[in-house]
Amino acid sequence: MTEKFKMLEPGIGPPSKRARKDSDPSEPMEPEIWKEFPEDLYETLIARLPVATFFRFRSVCQKWNSILTSNSFSVQCSQLTRPQPWFYTGTLENVNTGALYDPVLKKWHHPTAPVVPTKTIVLPVASAGGLVCLIDVNHRSFYVCNPLTRSSRELRARSGPVNVWSRVVVGMTVEKSSTSYRIMSVRSNGWYEIYDSGTDTWTRPGGMPACINVPLSLNYRSQAVTVSGCMYFLRSDLDGIVSYDMETGIWKQFRVPTPVHLREHTLAECGGRIMLAGLLTKNAATCVCIWELQKMTLLWKEVDRMPNVWCLEFYGKPIKMSCLGNKTLLMLSLRSKTMNRLVGYDMARKEWFKVPNCVFPHNRKRQWVTCGTAFHPCLTAKA
Amino acid sequence: MTSSKTIVLRSSDGATFEVDEAVALHSLMIKHRIETGGADSTTIDVPEVTGNTLSKVIEYCKKHVEAPNSDDLKSFDTDFVKVDQAVLCHLAKASYYMNIKGLLDLSSKTIADMFKGKTVEQIRETFHIKNDFTPEEEEELRKENSWNLFV
User: Fold this and answer.
1) Contacts of A35 (CB under 8 A, 6+ apart)
2) pLDDT tens, A48-100?
3) How far apart are CA A302 and CA A51, in angstroms?
4) What does pTM read for this prediction?
5) Residues of chain B neighbouring A33 (CB-CB closer than 8 A)
6) d(CA A226, CA A299)
7) Which residues share a beta bridge with A178?
8) Long-range contacts: A43-48, Cβ < 8 Å, 24+?
9) DSSP state, B147?
């Protein structure tokens, strides 16, 4: 798929393609020099390899293979920042195996084993610390897994009745100091529960405080975002954002007027900033726009738009949009009756990028990506 | 009080380098030596590092201590590791020994970039590593990786 196009309108620049700075991969490494390399430093090097390469190098020798499970390696990995998240997506054909997108190598990866050992269909709803949280379509069971290593766990069942038709929004955080995580599930009737992996229990602090109007009209296509241990999600009936601080247990509600003519919108997060992505249709032209929440005024401010040339493809067609990932990088699926485009936006660099179609390598058949979440690839995260 | 204090660093081959204390402290190993060595520790021996490498390490520390917020720091770092493999190897070892996190990160990342495209056999050759897997174990690993992200 070509990524070159002409600038049609002054003032709207073409998205720049970020060049990868790579040392020459074919440069031979002279054994005479490297045989002196101290063994202690192997972990340091390996922790800095791209995720894909690590799995290949497990077979070098027993020591390198055991690095994956060593504590010191875990510590090294957690100290390194991997700024670019990957995307875990579910496709129509292979719902439970998922397809992973690596935006650095611009490659889809197709695991053949299911992400969690279950026959029911599971959908990704949240992620934190290299782990992805999935729920089954009946909203009964929760699972947590590391999409890279397939370490997974079915969370202990919640007590009490579960209304399968009730929409639910899920948030997830990890404790900085430990490896435990918390999952927060909120239903439209205002009931919420919190799972703590350290104690392997769900707690029900009860109903919402009076300041939050219930029932909540939850926007099912919009995922929650978590910033500094605080979960934010949209409510569509009162045009606003609801937040829950996982540390203090405090709920807040903010009225934030939705931009005019906006639909199919979804929350996103980048470096602590809360963003919004959505479709704006005027006459027959549809465009994807990006807003940033101004915390002082509680207003959305438009900060970017999809390049005009890319929008032309959708001219005059009814478009639906779903969000397949909303942390630092945004992945959006734009669909009309006859076509489906996957588009990415780097919220940090303000760059749009095209995502290649998800194609199954064996039969070259295109897969339809239906849902997804962004996650930070971490080899050592355990469910 | 200690603003213009200098420290002398002595390499394995006897070369000496006089540096500002602030620059020397960028190495946590030297910092520890100074803090535990008493008032007379103005000359520190660095026997694991040769003069050539030590001079480069000092160049790195100087830049990062004297101008940590400068705009060209990134390009300085990029150019700093555009060296031949032997120098890069020595820089990584020196930064590990002298406990200079930034330089260790920089050199390790550069080395990792060099070998990420190599095959398993090439890695073994490069680092003189013996394959200690049995054929059955290798097969097992291949199977594990067969859900194979990494075609």
Assistant:
1) B127, B128
2) 887 777 778 888 899 888 887 788 888 777 777 666 899 999 888 777 888 89
3) 35
4) 0.78
5) 85-86, 89
6) 19
7) none
8) A43/A67, A43/A70, A43/A72, A43/A73, A43/A76, A44/A76, A44/B96, A44/B104, A44/B108, A45/B108, A45/B111, A45/B112, A45/B115, A46/A73, A46/B112, A47/A73, A47/A76, A47/A77, A47/A80, A48/A80, A48/B105, A48/B108, A48/B109, A48/B112
9) G
Rounded Cα distance, A230 and B99, in Å = 36
Task: Enumerate residue ranges in chain B where pLDDT < 70.
Answer: 1-3, 38-41, 144-151
Q: Do A44 and B85 touch (CB under 8 A)?
A: no
Q: How far is A244 from chain B (nearest CA, A)?
A: 36
In the chain, the amino acid numbered A232 is Y
ipTM of the complex: 0.83
Contacts of A48 in chain B (CB under 8 A): 105, 108-109, 112
Name the residue with tokens 């200079």.
B100
Handedness of CA B84, B90, B94, B95 (dihedral sign): positive
Cα separation, B26 vs B31, in Å, equals: 7
Instruction: Find the CB nearest A55 among B96, B122, B145.
Output: B145
Strands B6-11 and B43-46, bridge-based pairing: parallel
**Which chain A residues have a beta carbon less than 8 Å from that of B127?**
31, 34-35, 37, 42
Count of CB pairs separated by less than 8 Å, A with B: 116
Of residues B93, B113, B123, nearest to A23 (C-beta): B113
A260 touches chain B (CB under 8 A): no
**C-alpha distances in Å from residue A92, one per residue of A213, A369, A370:** 36, 7, 6
First to last CA, chain A: 37
